Amino acid sequence: MPPELSAVTTGPDESAGAAPAKGRPRSEAVSQSILEAALDLIAEHGTITDVSVEAIAERSGVSKATIYRRWPSKEELIVTAVERLKAPIPTTMPRTSLRDDLTHIANNMRKTFGARDRKVFKCMMTAVKEPEYKEHHDRMVEHRRLFVRETFAHWAERGELADDVDLDLAVAMFISPLLTIFVYGHYSELNRPDTVEQFVGTLLRGIGGPLCESRA
């Protein structure tokens, strides 16, 4: 039986995009059609630069004004669309051990992406080198990083991390390989069900504290 999950605070919803303005409620279906149109066009063009708001409006069947009421810029629209492809941050956690929590987070990242979505991710990795995209992208993903950092900090206080572990480095060591395998599609031979458990176990053998080792 899986461990009981505890509710956690995850911060703002990364898929929300810009804060809604006052007035008539917006249609989620319209917003989703705009985001899907943006993703389709990015994959078709193989670049974000060549995708215009005009093209997104035409593909989704809405006006440019409808788009700008939801997102103040093309950059924010694109980053929101890409971020929505990722699995949401868990709203509950096992909180039974560091191993269980990391396994839960990692399994949550094991979302199956199609060819279109992988093309979009590759385009985004190129686009974030530009300041106008990097600013929005960093803001969107920062609360994901903080969520994982808070998980490590929670268990560090309980003796499940070695005393000399740098939490920011631990977060990078945890997130980067998972993104590489499950999101960006590299090392496809590792995209299998048992990878998460093996990965978490290997990581904790390097940075786990005495209490963590006693649970292994």
From TrEMBL:
Residues 52-71 bind DNA. Residues 1-29 are annotated as: Disordered. Keywords: DNA-binding, Transcription, Transcription regulation. The keyword Transcription regulation applies. Residues 28-89 form the HTH tetR-type domain. One of its GO terms (molecular function) is DNA-binding transcription factor activity. This is Transcriptional regulator, TetR family. It comes from Glycomyces harbinensis.
